[in-house]
Every structure is written in structure tokens, then in C-alpha cells.
Design goal:
homotetramer, about 350 residues, alpha/beta, TIM Barrel, eight-stranded parallel sheet, 11 helices, about 35% helix, 3-deoxy-7-phosphoheptulonate synthase activity (chains A, B, C, D), DAHP1/KDSA (chains A, B, C, D), aldehyde-lyase activity (chains A, B, C, D), transferase (chains A, B, C, D), DAHP_syn_2 (chains A, B, C, D)
């Protein structure tokens, strides 16, 4: 960390900075020119409060040299993290394909979709039991009954379950019954939830917030990891921009960036990112080529009757065709899809 | 709600739309031209799922005519809501001034600041006990001890307390001890928390999410109100844009917009919006002129030593000068600041 | 176009709308319910001014049913436009590869790069002669001398030239000497320039503006086409968002969207979009998979010495390796790269 | 300017940086720690190309200490610039009120509006002769005839004219006939136009681009000033964000920021920023309180019949009422409105 001070600053201001920093166990290195005055900080700067530094009257800017995350940092752990979920691996050479409906609606529905997506090559079943909805008057999911139906589908197909948690009160239930716990975009900075998830060992799929920078997203992963749970999978699902044709703007650059900065696996959700089912195929394919470790795709047996998010769902037959193309690209890229 | 269909759509597609809508108890009105085919929906459209409508093959667009919120809607309740907090009113002609430090740090600190801001005209004491921080390694607040210190300061000054909740597990504590419960920007769509807050009667200060549209913000208020708690105060605190000079971009247009669409009081937090203490005065003043029902301002007795967010804090003497100017503008605008 | 009016509006307001519309030669179709009042417009709505409609007191919203562009619209011309540039085709099955330095710096530089990129499979030479720079104190390009050097490189290699125009005063020069005239992101809504380009027959590469919606981008193409020049190639180069890790956010969803809405070819510039040379490869590859009709890639023989934009340039050897991978993907997707 | 290098970088990389910088006449100051290696640059860094620095292999980041603009910089000229337009002053204590229709439509229209806005306290007449329109099929303005009609209105009322230029071909005409030449948001980075305007002495009103940072906006002013024309007035007119309720998001924070960074006058256009006439009053008032040196307001005698932008126009009577309130606030803030 480098502190840029006013070149004409008083000696006592510099001393104030040094005192604050040295009290935290760091060393400082002063460098003064005619047009600048720089204090370099040596040691573990993660305890330093940037805003506090700026609040010291004559500090102009504080420049972070390193990244603020430790456990997620690729510098700390150069090899890719590979997360094993009931024998299905996420990360490394593996391509995780998570497919299923937006909401679990009935046993018949979830079991039928689970069978079909497995047949086409999916190795995880996704489905919402607790649903975050903008309106309190919209369908909120089958809740606990939804979890039960996911378990039925898992029993029938062997596919591990991925589903979203909304409340820490449900955490024990999720740990017992769910294979990958999803944190939705709206809860990416629900720090209390992240801390509680950090106390478990269950793999966590952490969606990027609608307006979260890549650094904030990684810092949310760091919250979970700092608590002791290093099984974190990141999921890019589109960011909010001025463009309204697509629901969000899928930021595919984030894939190679996150893979350079961290050792965590990253998957892509083209269904939520675009909100349009005809965009799922081109973006799913592009995501694989950009280096994604997996895909999360909404599949519904009857999109028109889906209780939520029908516009972005595709039918099992369409999913099957997309998977055929994904398999070709996976081979070109040297990726394996477990289970096929 | 108006459904725009493909002008060459099949009769069965139109029937599918009508069937779905009529099953929910609404009536439809068909209007067909050469270049358009429109189905108008008559009745309570809040149950209609827009995405589901679009998923029906030949629906092009769904246009909401009314607003999706009911209890917050000014059409439903034309007069301004006025929320009474221990005799201090928020809304109507009143101007609520909430001031205090970002974080509660010690009894001495919080009591001293409380006394000073009261003297300058503040009628609420704000201070963070539980702090949402991007990094797990940053100071997370004094937590329960912070609540206790706020109570001490309240006892000394009589100022009602405003502080942020992070976890539903703390809700009983907050209901017992806090006068206005703040929901932070990052939790604006933590729907589980909103539902729990809806079961209480404590006034809720709901900050706008970093990338939340005005409609989403009002819908989050609607979650609380739908649960039975109509004591909601909205708080504009800047949105995330491409501009990085200020921490966020304060959206002052949102004030007159929200006051037109809803009957709820709206206040403005210029400290978090800009992240720079020299911007607090001009934006606090502009907010009052734009029609805000109050202000939330960070005041610290020693910004350089503040444990968080020092850069945006002002000292009590500066706050006092700002208040003098606010009082002049309040008079011009015909607003009252309670307690002075 | 559909006009939504206040359901309780006066008959004279409806008449005012009808009069305005019918005076422009369109017909209207009135549909009135209890909760809505809709006027459907039948005929060529491109003359209708949406803002003017809204200004009529009791109009709530104006909904465009069709798209506001005609000549660019795929509904008007369902087959892909293919633009022939000295025998090199852009659009259809062809993949156009435009490579070269950000700025033309010397004869030796441009000729050497041109030869190398041709060898690796590029079929167009790009290079800036007139440079748009944020600062008036930055290098502004070799200007006319730059055009001359591009011509030398073209003579040596046979590669058609793509270069950016900044001023209508230079138009004759460009028409005489340049094969594809580029309009930069900052000039995408320089309507005077677009109109002048519409009077020529030279192919125009129209970059998307930093904060332009897809519709605005297509409307700028429409300006050129409405003037008589239908040889327009669109180029996605990243949009401005809150994320600052990459210079801009490459919007790959825009590729399939634009190809659905229009018949024009679309290429992608991963160099400017990201500003980081190590992101060029993954995003160039993803762009091809998303359906792009070509790529524009910055290549420099010595990035560290480049007079501008060195950070995003790659060396000829790196370009060659990227092209090897692009060729594999082109084959998978059934695309041809002319000249190889 | 400070160059942050890889702490383990080779000596030759440091030498490469030093050589490049010293060749431009600057001095360097090296500071090396265990975890950082910093090269401070001493001298005029405006010639340094940041991207080029980064392109040198082992440079991590380049940090600008000073601002990249010189002539616009308040450090260079601490007192406010005051621009005199036919005796009406813009800047300093003065409040410039520019009012008039979006488009000039007829002699009767423009003369009538000019008289009315003057009566209410406007001291400049604004009106579009050349109109930037998203669609080539929309009304493009009366063009030269529009300029003539503005001159008629000026003769009748004495109000100086403000109108937008679209093409450098029209520059001589504008210099002869227009008092303040407006550069629209879409042309803010039309650098060729800016350079040509820099050769004149006519005051330039430079609107902020839709997605321009404050620094880019000031740099565009610097283009004009570097050419020799220091009569630049900045105009905030809203930026593009994700919020769609208002047409743009008015960034009022930009007012105090720009006034701190530069000595140039800054005015605000609430009409274009919001696109809604009922938002003009609260935002015009807030802008004055935020420190704006003036306002640009659309006024039309019959908004419903306006050929463009009717939705954001207000009628002369409404303008008159707004002006009454503005006058009260001007007095509170110690500002003068010339001519009243």
C-alpha cells in the first residue's frame, strides 16, 4: 500500500500516518520529491483502513499495490481449486453443467426435467425452492416442500442438487439436504449470511451482485473462506448497465480476469444474464470458450406454464441440442464433462 | 396491463393468454389491427407474472399501465405519511435530521457527538453498531455493545436512535432497543429480512440499493408494508454509475419522483453518496430544496481517528455551520425542524 | 405504435392525438376499457415524434411496437448483407480479420506489421492515422502522412485498409485512399459526419458508442443507409459500466442481438474493449463463437514503444498463435477466413 | 506521476522507464522497498503516455498525482472565470438564465417566447436551429433559417443567443451570428470540432457527454482552451445510468466538484436531464443551491405542439413561477441575476 501525501504537507501529518501504520505492526518507507511525498507501507496491509488514511488531512490518495483478498488469491495458491461434489468435480479440466427449472413446481415436473437434463449431459440439478422475487405478491417458491422434491429428483437420477438459500434460519436444513448452496446476486453482500456459510463445509455457489465489481465479488468469497469454508464457486450472471434489450449485460471478460486473480472455479449463467431464451445458446458456448468452468442453464418442460422466469427458459430438446454443441467445444478446449 | 401480441399470431395463442389471465380472475379486452394485436387486462394485475406472459410464444411485450405496488402507492393514499418516533415526526412539513458517527466506538465518543449534534439541531442520533464491510478483515462494529452505548447516548440526550440491522437473529434486540431500524443498501433486496421487519411495528429506514431502480426500491418498501408494518422511510444514498470521482452518484431527481409515486417520507444521505466531506454541505442543502423530508449526515469528533469512513465525516463545528444554512432553507421551503 | 392514454381522459385529448397522427397520413384504432384507453396507430410511424405524443397532456406512455429503423431492419431484408472490399467479403460465412497497430508510426513499422499479420491470416490492415485522444497534449496521429504510409503497406501486401475518420473535411481524401472508413465510438452520434458518409459508397465500420444502446447504434447505421450508403459494418468495442478492472465491458450478447434485428455484419474489437493484452485471446475466441463476422485486433511489433495504447496491443507472434486457435473455431462454426 | 513497478523487476526495466521519461525532459526519483518499487516523475508529465508506461513489461500501475489539464485547472488560475456576453456575465456571483424552445419553429414562436422568458428574468435565449436527433427520419431543425429567426428574436429583445453547432462547415456562420455556441453531449468528444472552436473567441457552452467522466469533460474544455479560446462554460445535463424513470440521471455533485477542480463557470440543464417537465422546478432550484452558475431551461408556448422534446418543456407561465422561486434562492445564496 502506498500513501500519496501533499508534497507541502507538514511533518506532523507524515508522523500521524506513520504512527497509525506502525501501531498496526507495519513499517514505513518515506520518499519525498518536490512534487510528491510518498509513504510506502511494508507488511500486512489488510488491517489498514483506506478511508481512515484519507481522513488524515494531508493524504491525497491511497494506492493499493496488492489485492485485499488472501485466501482466494492465486498468488497464495497458484493451482486451480477443484471442488468435489459427490464425485462430480468443479474446476480444473472439468466442466460442470447445472441445469433445471427456475422454480421447483411439482414432483412430476422436477423428476422429469432432472432425467432429461441428465440424459443430455448435465451433471448437476438446479431448481429454486426459496425464490427471491422483486414483488411480495409474486410466487415465492414451494420453500421446504421444494427442498423435499429436489431430494426426490436426486434419488431418481443421482444428480447433486444446487439451490438458493434466502435465510440463515434455513441453514441447517440446507447443510443436511443440499449439495451446493447458492447465494443469489441480491445477497452477495449479505455479510451475515456469508459468515454463517463460512462455518459450514458445504460448497457455496456465489453469484455476482448486479452492480458488484470483480473485487467486491472476490471479497464476498473471501468472507466465506475466512470463516473456514474454502469450497467456493463463483458464478457470473450479468451485471446491470444502461442497456435494456437484455435483462443484464453478461460480462464474459470477468471469466479470464477472475481465473487470473483467484484459484476458484467460475461458472456462467446465461439464462438470468440475458432473460431471453434464444440468447442462451450463443452465450453458453462463448462462456465455455472464455474459460468458464461450467454453466448454469434454466430448462423447463413447458416454459409457457413456468411459474417464474419463463422467458429465459429453454425446453429439454433445445437443451439437448445446445449440449451437443457444448460437447464439441469442450473437446476443442480440452475440457471434460463428468458423467459423459 | 396490456399484452402486445404478434399481429399475425394464431387464435390459440390469444386464447392461451386469455385462459391464463381469466383463471386469475381478470377480464380481457381484445383489440386487433393490421399491424398490432393487443389484449388489455382488466382487474387486479398484481398476480400476473410478466415473464410468464412473455414466455407464451407469440407475446411480444407486456406493458404495465399501473404501478406494481399498492400499499406504498400515492394513488391509494394521497396524503403524505407522517411517522412519529417518540414525538419526532418524519414526513409532512417536518425535516428529520439524523446525525452521528459511522460507527459507535466508545461511550465517551457517542455521548459527546450526540450532545453536539443535538445542540446544532439534529433530532435523531445515528450510529453503526453492526457494520457491513466489504472486507472480512475490516472492523465489523462493536455489535451488541454498540447498541448499549447508543442507549446510553439516548438517555443522555433524548435523541431517538437510528441504527442498521444485519441479521434477523438480532431482530428482537433491535425492536426492544432501537427507534428506527435501518436496512442498508446491500440488504435492500434481502427479502427474508424485509419480511421479518414487516412483522414488527418499528419504523424502518430503507436505503436504496446501489443499483436499484426507483421501482425496485419502492417494491422493497412494499414487502415491509405488505407484512403489516407501514412505517417505512426511504433513504436515497447514491447509486453506482461509471463516474468514480464521487463514491456514488447522488440521484436527487429520485426525491420528487418518489414523492409523486408514493406517500412515504424520503430522506437523503449525502455522506455515503459522495464519500467526500466537502461535498456534504452543498448536497445536503440541495436535497432539502429538492423536497427531501430529512437528512442523514455523518459527524465525527475526530474524523482522522474514525474507525471507518473517516473521509466522508465532518466535525461537529462543520455540522453546526451546515445546520445554520439548512435552517434558512427550511424556512424558505416552509419546513419545520422538530425540536428547534 | 401504441399510445396509452389516461383512462379518464377527455374526448378532446383523444381527438388531439388522432388529429396529430392522421395529419401525418396514419390511421388510428381506439380501444377503451375501464382501466385503460389505447390508441393504436396504423401506417408508417417513423415520422411520429414520441416526445411530442407524450407532451399531449393525457398521454401516459407511447409504446413502439416495431423498430424505428427500416433499411437496417432484418424484417425488410431477411438475408445477411455481405460487403465486398476489393474481393474480401465481410458478412455471411466469411470471417474478416482486421489487424494492425493502434497508430501508424513509420513506413518500416506499418509495412512490417502488415506483412506479419497477413502471414498469420489477417485479411485487412487497420492502423490509425487520425487519432481521437482524450487529451489535447497526447500524440494525435501522423494524420495525412499516416494515410500515405497505409497506402504503402497496402501496396506491399494487398491488404485493404481500415482507418478512422475524424473530420468531414478529410472525407474526399478518405474516399480516394481508404477501403473501409471507421467511425469511432466517440463519433457514433456525430450525425453530420454520418450524413456525409451516407453520400459515399465506401464501406463504413461503425463502432458502438461507449454508452449507446443497441437501438441507438443501429439508428446511427440507419443515418448512413438513409443517405444512400448501405455498406455498413457494425463493431462492438465494449460499453462503459461501473466495472473498472477492464477499460470497458465487452457486450458479447450484442452480437446475436444485432444479427437478429438487422442484416448487417458485426465485428468485435477485443483490444479496445478490455485494454489488456492478455484478454485479447479469450475474448476474440468467444466473439467468433457468439457469431461475430470478424475481429479487429491491435498488433504492434514493439508494444512497449507504441506511441499509444501499448497496454492493449499484442505482438505479431502472439497474434499468430491466436489466429491458429481462431482458425480451429472458425472451422467448428463453419466460417471461412478469406485468403487462407 | 508515480510509476509502480513489480518489486522484483529487473534493473533494465527500471532503466527503460527512466530512459523514456528522461528523454521527455523529466527527472525521476527511485524508491524501492521489499514489496514495492516506485519511480516518481518530476516535471511536466502532460506529455507522458500512461498506456505506454503500462506497456513496459514490469510496470504495474501508473498513478497520476496531478490533474491532466492545465488551462482549466483551478490551481493555475484560482479565481473564477467570468465570461462576458454582450454585457451579460456568466460566472462569479452572476446567475445566467438561458431559456427558450428546444427547436426554433417560426418567427412568431421564437419572438413570443423570447419576450416572455425575458420578462420572467431570463438573460439568454436558447433555441435549436440544427438538431441532433437519434433518428434520421425525425425533424432535424430549421437549420440556417433557424439561425436567422434567432437573430430576429435577439433584435426584438436584446437577449444574446445560445444555439448548438453540429458541423465545422457552419462555424463561420455561427461565429458571425451566435453569442454562445453550444456543443451537444453527443459531440463532447468530437475532437475535430473542439479544435476548430478553439480557434475562435466566441464563448462555448460545452455539455457533458452522456457517459463522460468529470475528468473527460474537463479535458474536452481543455481542447478548446489549448487552441486559444478560454471562454468555456460547462453544462451538466444528466448522465446515463441504469435508472430509466428519468431520461438521464442529473449529477448535481458534479457542480461543486467541477468548481473545485476548475475555474470555469458551470450551468445545469434540468430539462434534458430528466425529460419530464414536472421535474424541472425542483432540480432547477437544487442546482442553484448546489452552486451552479446558471440554468438552461426549455420553455415552449405550446408544449403539445412542439416539434421536438415536448415532454420536457414547460410553458411561459410555469417558467415565470419557477423564476420567482429561483430569485428567492439566488438572494439567499448571494447570487445576482443580470438584467433584473
Amino acid at each position: 500500500m502506498i500513501v500519496i501525501m501533499n508534497p507541502k504537507c507538514k511533518d506532523e501529518s507524515i508522523k500521524e500516518v506513520k504512527d497509525y501504520v506502525e501501531a498496526l505492526g507495519l513499517k514505513t518507507h518515506l520518499s519525498q520529491g518536490e512534487t510528491f511525498c510518498i509513504v510506502g507501507l511494508i507488511g500486512d496491509t489488510s488491517k489498514i483502513d483506506e478511508d481512515k488514511m484519507i481522513a488524515i488531512g494531508e493524504v491525497d490518495k491511497v494506492l493499493k499495490v496488492g489485492e485485499p483478498y488472501k485466501k482466494a488469491n492465486r498468488l497464495v495458491k497458484p493451482e486451480n481449486s477443484i471442488i468435489d461434489v459427490l464425485g462430480n468435480k468443479i474446476g480444473g479440466k472439468n466442466l460442470a453443467i447445472m441445469a433445471g427449472p427456475c422454480s421447483v413446481e411439482s414432483e412430476e415436473q422436477i423428476v422429469e426435467i432432472a432425467k432429461k437434463v441428465k440424459e443430455s449431459g448435465a451433471n448437476f440439478l438446479r431448481g429454486g425452492a426459496f425464490k427471491p422475487r422483486t414483488s411480495p405478491y409474486s410466487f415465492q417458491g414451494l420453500e421446504k416442500e421444494g427442498l423435499r422434491l429436489l431430494e426426490v429428483a436426486k434419488k431418481e437420477t443421482g444428480l447433486p442438487i444446487v439451490t438458493e438459500i434466502m435465510a440463515t434460519e434455513d441453514l441447517n436444513d440446507f447443510v443436511d439436504r443440499v449439495d451446493v448452496i447458492q447465494v443469489g446476486a441480491r445477497n452477495m453482500q449479505n455479510f451475515h449470511l456469508l459468515k454463517e456459510l463460512g462455518k459450514t463445509k458445504t460448497p457455496i455457489l456465489l453469484k455476482r451482485g448486479l452492480s458488484s465489481t470483480i473485487e467486491e465479488w472476490i471479497m464476498s468469497a473471501e468472507y466465506i473462506m475466512a470463516g473456514g469454508n474454502e469450497n467456493v464457486i463463483l458464478c457470473e450472471r450479468g451485471i446491470r448497465t444502461f442497456e435494456t434489450y437484455t435483462r443484464n449485460t453478461l460480462d464474459l471478460s470477468a471469466i479470464p480476469v477472475v481465473k487470473r486473480l483467484t484459484h476458484l472455479p467460475v461458472i456462467v449463467d446465461p439464462s438470468h444474464a440475458t432473460g431471453k431464451n434464444w440468447l442462451v445458446e450463443p452465450l453458453a458456448k462463448s462462456a465455455v470458450i472464455a474459460g468458464a468452468d461450467g454453466l448454469m442453464i434454466e430448462v423447463h418442460n413447458n416454459p409457457a406454464k413456468a411459474l417464474c422466469d419463463g422467458a429465459q427458459s429453454i425446453k429439454p430438446e433445445e437443451f439437448s441440442k445446445i449440449m451437443d454443441k457444448i460437447k464439441v467445444l469442450a473437446q476443442v478446449e480440452g475440457r471434460d464433462i463428468e458423467g459423459i
